[in-house]
Amino acid sequence: MLSHIVSAKKMKVTQESISKLVADLNSDDRDVAEAASMRLDKLLYPRYPTVTTPGELNRVMEDHDLSLRGSPALEPLLKTLREGTDFAREYAATVLGAIKEPRALRPIIERLRDDCAKVRYSATQGLWFLRNAEAVEPLVDSLQDSESLVRHGAASALGFIGSEQAVPALTNLYQSGDRDDMVAALYALGDIGDSRSLPLAREAL
């Protein structure tokens, strides 16, 4: 999703244009839906270099006032997060987190239990952006998700939030025996900086 944010001329955002694009975002035709997501990015973000990771996007958004609070995009995207297609929910979970919209916190947390693994992963990305302590407990639960992508997304978000409350669960993830899980947990524990993770870091050397 983040790779869709490309350099573009700033365009006028209207309720009509947003409604049409959100409708297309929910299309069963994947090509139509992806085109709508790219068009939405161009409408919602100013002229902007391409970014490909949450870290890069967060840095740029902290440098510029890109809040869309009050934008006609918010209500349609919040509704899409609850009721949209898999692809549309995936998009909305990331974008609403990226713009740090406080009303999206609970709806994004709810998507951690979505039937679609890609939506659950996008929810971890959205919560990474929001960096809200209220998300810690639900993200800890997601460390036990059946999909490794979701577990690793949850670990990354917990590391960025920085709550020591997550240390025991991340330690358990590290000790699970799966190498990729171990790496994700170790990075997250390093981000938190809790002294209890030092023996694990030494063990990994």
Summarize the structure.
Helix content is 63%, strand content 0%. It is mainly alpha-helical. The radius of gyration is 17 Å and the shape is elongated.
Structure description:
It is elongated and about 55 Å long. The protein contains twelve helices and no strands. The protein starts with 14 loop residues before the first helix and ends with a helix. The protein has helices at 15-25, 30-44, 54-63, 74-83, 86-98, 105-110, 117-130, 136-142, 148-161, 167-174, 179-192, 198-204. It has 205 residues and is mainly alpha-helical. The model is unreliable at 1-11 and 63-67 (pLDDT under 50). 41% of the residues are buried.
Topology:
Elements: H1 15-25, H2 30-44, H3 54-63, H4 74-83, H5 86-98, H6 105-110, H7 117-130, H8 136-142, H9 148-161, H10 167-174, H11 179-192, H12 198-204
